[in-house]
Amino acid sequence: MCDFRTMEKFLFGIIMVGSHWRFVFHAFLLGIVVIGYGSASGQSPVTDPANGDRVDERVDEREDQQVEERDEEREDDRVNERDDDREDDRVNERDEDRDEDREEDREEDREDLIKRDLDEMVVSSRRIPVRHSETQRSVQIVTRRQIAESAARDLASVLATVRSVDIRHRGTFGMQSDLGIRGGTFDQSLVLLNGINVTDPQTGHHNLNLPVDLMSIERIEVLHGPAARIFGPNAFSGAVNIITSEPGDSRVNLSLTGGQHRFGHAGASAGFRSGPVSNHVSLSGMASDGYIENTDFRTGNLFYHSRVGWEAGRLDLQAGYQEKAFGANSFYTPRFPDQYEHTRTGFLSLRWLPEGRLRLTPAVYWRRHHDRFELFRHEAPDWYAGHNYHRTDIAGLTVNWAHSSTFGIFSAGIDLRHEYILSNVLGRPLSSPRPVPSRLAGNGAEYTHSYSRTGMSFMAEHTVTIGSVSLSGGALLFSSTDLDTPVTLFPGVDAAWQLTGALRWYATVNRTLRLPTFTDLFYSGPDNLGNPELQPEEAVSLETGFKLQGNTWHADIAVFQRRGVNMIDWVRRPDEDIWRSENLTKVNVTGFEAGFTFALAQTTLSAQYTYLHSGKQSGEFLSNYALDHLTHKIDLTLSLPLRLPLPLLRQGGFRTNLTWQDRSGGYLHYEENAFTGIRPFEPFWMADARIFFDNGPSRVFAEASNLWNARYVDIGNVPQPGRWVRAGMEIRF
């Protein structure tokens, strides 16, 4: 593993160059001037060698005609003038043609973007690749261009703009953000990195601890609805698959951003080939002093992805390391706001991607996560026993197989996954304690508890298409050392009917499950009490909808219901001061979602809406997660081209995201560490915006999150930051 202190010396030395927002703002203006000067000098017709040769030829001709009569000279002068005029016209026509060609290229790029958005090969809806236009499920794709043009600096902020996705922030810029889909909690969504399951078994709070910077992400696929029969347990309410850039893409990206609150971000990525090996590597870091006391943070990412090919197939390797350290003001209890957290994540996977008819794809993977949580960052009271230390390991083996015939496509898969934790809080007592490594603790701390479980999944699915109708049916057989029953069956059926060339109807019925996390089972603290007797969550989900696709637009609409039993939540009753982990028996969630996207040339307009209703409300008790879902969510996105008649501002763009959220439920409100009562979540509008200008390989930009300075909380008693302005520069080779 890479030493984080070494990464700090390299990364944060660069970051701090731009960590003061005034400095970067002036650098932003200076970059525009430099780029504009280069643009103006590069477009001067004097530097055109073809024009220079023609002028020299005409001068020579006039010198050879000294014996000509004056009238003929005048005539020649008039001819030359007309030639000059025609030459000027040709130069102007060539410039206009270049502008038209650039415009046509941009329009083609936009058309390609639309096509990719609608027809891209995805893996989120089935275990085998399928075009987006042929899916029998609700799948939304965030493209590379959408990521690059957004004001987001982290993965969670990008996902927050996706329909039916609920991102609840505790820490800013991805320090800690909870991912929920269609009213599910952060523990009910599965996260994959290039198809490999990286979901954290300790707690879903760590699911987005991924060692990948935004500049390395090619696209994000969001599957709405359960996917247990496809990916196994814990894909309870949806799944997110992060797809990184193809190894070997010959490009280099550099970026530097600075902003308010001494925010700084620096990153570099490169793709290159070395013989038969294709490579992609990225390195990035981010830091800030925080927007209020004890919200400072620093983080670093290192990611490597490579492929080596033979005639029979390709060997795919990916590895990454991430480290975060951040002030956790009031994260888990507002009674003690001086909290602090430090996490380390390492990841490694190896896959075989076959060529030819035998589509047998094996993969092995490993993930290790360290978590140090401090309830008191500075001065702790006498009763405080010490910090919490956790080390979670995941080791997995998965094999997928697909066979195509005249009877359709049959696919099957086997997953073997082992999850293990060492902790001084979570699990069952160890017979003999194990020391926490000094680089993680530094004070002689020991792991005193451990727990492990192993699960095996067998998935089978068959898809058949008859004319305009396609059917897909399958099931998951799941066995776990955590379950009393030896094998559990989770079937599902998807159907779609292409009513016309543009209109597609689909319907799905699926059964799903979610195992309790180690935190659900064992965590015990001043305000929390876990429950080792928890049962797995189970649900049956039904959905139907329509997809309509035009030349420059597409729309979709869906209604769904998830009928859950044994739902797990942390609840608090009015006569108690402690949160307990319990099964809430039945909780049904009914929802409606609709989306419309229009794209023409370089203009894009998108409108998305989600409505959710829970059949159980937090009346006799306060729900910390399960019942505090978004009731209404509106996502609006507008992208516009910007062109100004100035060399330095010749080509650019503007993008803004507007979101309105209305959340059910409430939270415990504290003032000066004293409880003042339960407050409902207030609805609010959120706006982010970005303006940028391109010139060749360079881009300069300015952006702002929470542009309207809204005051709100996503969860608990953690106030979110107001307006945050940043600026920077990116260079692409």
Describe the fold and architecture.
The protein has 733 residues and is of the alpha+beta class. It contains eight helices and 38 strands. It has a 22-stranded antiparallel beta barrel. A five-stranded mixed β-sheet has the order 3-8-9-6-7. Residues 1-64 and 102-121 have low confidence and may be disordered.
- Computed Rg: 29 Å
Structural class: alpha+beta
Strand content: over 45%
In round numbers, the mean pLDDT is: 83
For the record, give the distance between the C-alpha atoms at the N and C termini, rounded to a whole number.
29 Å
Characteristics:
single chain, 733 residues, alpha+beta, five-stranded mixed beta sheet, 8 helices, 16% helix
Which SSEs are present, and which pair or pack?
Elements: H1 4-15, H2 21-42, H3 49-64, H4 70-119, E1 121-122, E2 130-131, E3 138-142, H5 144-149, H6 155-159, E4 165-171, E5 176-181, E6 189-193, E7 196-197, E8 217-224, H7 228-231, E9 238-244, E10 252-259, E11 263-274, E12 277-288, E13 297-309, E14 313-327, E15 340-354, E16 359-374, E17 388-405, E18 408-423, E19 428-435, E20 446-466, E21 469-480, E22 488-498, E23 503-514, H8 518-522, E24 528-529, E25 537-549, E26 553-565, E27 568-572, E28 579-583, E29 587-600, E30 603-614, E31 622-623, E32 630-642, E33 652-663, E34 666-671, E35 674-680, E36 684-695, E37 698-705, E38 724-732
Parallel strand pairs: 6-9, 24-28
Antiparallel strand pairs: 1-2, 3-8, 4-5, 6-7, 8-9, 10-11, 10-38, 11-12, 12-13, 13-14, 14-15, 15-16, 16-17, 17-18, 18-20, 19-20, 20-21, 21-22, 22-23, 23-25, 25-26, 26-29, 27-28, 27-31, 29-30, 30-32, 32-33, 33-36, 34-35, 36-37, 37-38
